[in-house]
Amino acid sequence: MKSPLAIAAVLTLSFLTAHAEDKPQSATKNMPKPEVVKSEEEWKKLLTLEQYEVTRGRGTERPFGAIYEEFEKQGEGTYYCVCCGAELFTSKEKFHSGCGWPSFYDSSKAKGVLEKVDNSHGMRRVETVCKRCDAHLGHVFDGESVSANTPTNRRFCINGVALKFVPLGGEAPKLLEVTSDAVQQKKEEVAKEGGVEPKK
Asked: What are the chain's domains?
């Protein structure tokens, strides 16, 4: 007969093994690091309070708000990340889901949207973030009745404040400068090869 201590050890190991996959993908080594990295203070200077709370604080805007109403009226165009200017969605993937938040059935050809496991609030969901700057956009849901008639059977449920809409023919926002350590290191290497001492 096994001792209570041995049984407890087996149960603990079983629990840890069973819940190992519950860790967000962002905690794994396979997830790409964002190219644009800024301090919280720097983001606060660039964004409105609501934009900051949603995109950097992983918040959620209230449904059926003024921004949603505005989204529903928007015509052809492209949706960019409000933080860094990366292309995320276009009006071609937009559809009316009736959920109270902007909905798309796919990300745009720019492939600027990254999907990550989200286990917050006692739920298992898939979070969508900007691949370039890790801004929280919303969540994506598969196989719902509201998205059944879309080509992908998916609904990207996105916070409107995380998006910057540019009408068809309009000028895309300027991309925020890449500031990752890897890029900075590459710049310094190129500068040294050219005989220029990088600024510190």
From this structure: 28-170+177-193 (2.170.150.20)
